[in-house]
Amino acid sequence: MPLYEYRCESCDQVIEVLQKFSDEPLKECRTCGGKLERLLSPPGLQFKGTGWYITDYARAGQKPTDGKAEGSDKSVNGKPEKAAAKAESKKAD
């Protein structure tokens, strides 16, 4: 169930109420009887787990902390190490 915030127009008190989507919005302040206004507030999100930041949201050019970045394979002249060794052995023949 979502958590809604309301503000009283008379006493400026802000309250949080757990309501169903189908429930009618509250209209009267429990403290002073004034008119309530429903507020827009950001949802509470918490990302858990490893890797989501590095793989999806990291800025270009930053190195990840775990060392498992794309392109971290050893390479010679832009080619993987094994392919470069094969190319050099063919040149020697």
Number of strands: 5
The proportion of residues forming helix, as a percent range, comes to: 10-25%
Main sheet, how many strands, which sense, barrel?
Answer: 3 strands, antiparallel
Shape: rod-shaped
Order of helices and strands: EEEHEEH
Query: Which consecutive residue ranges, at least 5 long each, have pLDDT under 50?
Result: none
Structural class: alpha+beta
Q: Note the beta-strand portion.
A: 15-25%
What's the oligomerization state? single chain
Tally of helical segments: 2
Calculate the terminal CA-CA distance, rounded to whole Å.
Answer: 73 Å
Strand order of the largest sheet: 2-1-3
Report the average pLDDT across residues. 74
Mind telling me the C-alpha Rg? 29 Å
Structural description of this entry:
- The structure is a single chain.
- With 93 residues, this protein is of the alpha+beta class.
- It has two helices and five strands; from the N terminus they run E-E-E-H-E-E-H.
- The N and C termini lie far apart (73 Å).
- Helix content is 19%, strand content 20%.
- It has a domain at 3-39.
- The chain has helices spanning 52-57, 81-92, and strands at 3-8, 14-18, 36-39, 75-76, 79-80.
- The mean pLDDT is 74.
- The strands form two sheets. A three-stranded antiparallel sheet has the order 2-1-3, with no helix packed on it. Strands 4-5 form a two-stranded antiparallel ribbon.
